[in-house]
Every structure is written in C-alpha cells, then in structure tokens.
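Expect chain and fold; see below:
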Amino acid sequence: MGLYIAFGIYWIIAIRNRKYWRGATISNILFMGGLAFGRLVSTIIDGVSFQYTIGMLLEGLFLIWGLHNLKKYSSEVKSESL
C-alpha cells in the first residue's frame, strides 16, 4: 500500500510541477497497465468477477488516456523547446 501512496503523491506533485509531468504520466501508464493486465490474467484463470471487470475496464481506460496525453503533450513540449 505504501507504493500506491508514493505513486499518488508523485502524481499530485507532477500536476503542479511541469518538469515531472512526463515521468509521472509514464509511471501512471505502467501502473495502470500492470493492474489491468493482472486483472485480465485473473479473469482468464479464475473466471469473470463483476468487481474485477469494472476495475479492469477503468484501469484500461486510464492506460489509454495516459497514452493519448503522452502523445498529445509530448509534441507540444518539443515545439516549446525549439
């Protein structure tokens, strides 16, 4: 649980400090992707659980949203530095 809290604090800091945004977004993508993948494996092995399915869908949504934001805002950051 401490790891979850540490990530949450890092993500909150990145909201306020732009230089941490990219790293926080990448860590969020990996975190949500790992959770979604773990739930998918659990669903395949153990069967469908309504609660896990909702969590897996939300984590997958956050994974896709993070990838979208990383692609969208990385191009803006590159153009600002030129």
User: Anything to note?
Assistant: The longest helix spans residues 50-81. The chain has one domain: 2-77.
